[in-house]
Amino acid sequence: MLGTLTRLPTFNTQWIIPTLVRRWGWIVACTLAVFLAGFAAVIILQPQYAIATTLIFKVGREQEPPPLMTKEMFISGTLRPEAIAAKIELLESQYLMAEVVRTLGEDFFKRSAPAETVFQRVRALARSVLQTLSGWAEEVLIFIGYSQRVSPTDKLVARLRSDLSAEQVKRSDVVAVSFTHADKEVGVKVLETLVALFIQRNIDVYRTPFALDFLASETNQFRRTLDALEAQRLELQRSSDNPALTEERTAWVDQLRQLNGQLETSMSEVRRLQAEVPLDRSTVGNLERRVTGTKALKRSAVAEGLDTRLTELESRYQQRRDVFQEDSEPMKALAQEIERVKQAIKDNNVLVTVGENSELNTTRIQIEREMLSKRILLEGEKARADYLRLAAADVQTRLMRMAETAKKMRELDREIAAVEKDYLSYRGRMEDMRMSEAMDKARISNVAVFAPPVASIEPVRPRKLLFVLGGLLAGLFGSIGVVLTLELLRPSVHSRQSLATVLGVPVLGRLPEVAA
Predict the structure, then answer these.
(1) pLDDT by residue (tens digit) across 325-361?
(2) Whole-model pTM?
(3) d(CA 226, CA 418)
(4) Residue 336 three-state SS
(5) How many whole angstroms separate alpha carbon 94 and alpha carbon 207?
(6) Closest of 225, 156, 146 to residue 420, by C-alpha
(7) SS3 string of 63-116?
(8) Distance between CA atoms of residues 225 and 346, nearest Å
(9) CA 373 from centroid of its chain's CA atoms
């Protein structure tokens, strides 16, 4: 049995039209305000162009048969859907967009065409004001702790990622990539860089990791080591007097042999002179410095006086002989006197040297000259021996230095040969690896650019007609909704039933409105 049906309350809509008619001015004003706001947004907002490209995914290395399976056993037509989704995720990743920003640089995105017309200046001023207000609002949110501070690079990466979209075309191997930007050239460059980095990253994922980089690094290291050794060898050659060390060593050895022979001869001469000089010195000591030549002899004055006395006595004796007898006393006395004088003359009959001539001893002079000459020759031979000894020591030092240089040269040659062998080996491997990678690129890179990035002729944003009509409709229906909502919220009744419900008495009639 059905229960008693209760009468549901009804909603009276007869008041809507009078209310709208009564508030038509306010509705029109709000509609015009929103319409003008949309029109101003169309003017202020910078037009955005769509840059699109198409990528096609071919069968790559991951679709090759495993080593233990043949191509007949391995069935694979196209990429799996999850593989396509992974490629799209990589294409839209933050890492790849950050690499694009790092490659192009932040200044590349800051450039803009200068404003030439008044309209462009007004638009630029409006955008500047909006950016300033947005910056202030962001600082306020950061200050109250609602938001965190983000670096300009991260903001740029996030904005570029929001403008990028990639989607698979109807369950195929084709992926459509689109990017919106205000500058066509910048957008095309960004999309080209993004696709190039994506393809390179896709190649890096499947190739042998760091093989070519390792070989290039090792090759460069060996090259630097080889250059350093070559420079050291060249400096060693330059420091020596003659690059031909063997010929130079032979010449220095001959010179050392000659110096040693001359030194031996000089030392023999020194020993001979050292033995002769003392003998000459002894001979000179035994010789007089001067020798006597001719002498002038003369009798002494006593003998001459006695001779005169004897002559006088003999003359007197002869005179007295005529007078006296010889045996007389005067004659005897005179004879005795004569005998005494003769004896005295005999006793004093000596020669006295009155003049003597002497001359230098030529023998001694000759020996002294020879001794002086030998002494000078001895000193010269000693000096010559010292010089030859120093020269021989210098040549010996040079020979020792040349021996060390030759030893270092041999060590450097061996080291250079070993390093050069390693360098050529690594370089050959690097070239083989580079050719192998170049040949495998088509097989590794399963991504091909089907259509290069192209910018749209007309801007895709903002949509002017949508903004204008949307503003008009939003203003119209928004203002109507606001008016009706405010009317419902007012403490008023719009029907007899509502009035009877409020007053609790039946309503019998309604008086018409009479203008005052």
Answers:
(1) 777 777 777 777 778 777 777 776 655 555 555 556 5
(2) 0.44
(3) 10
(4) helix
(5) 23
(6) 225
(7) HCCCCCCCCCCCCCCCCCHHHHHHHHHHHCCHHHHHHHHHHHCCHHHHCCCCCC
(8) 120
(9) 70
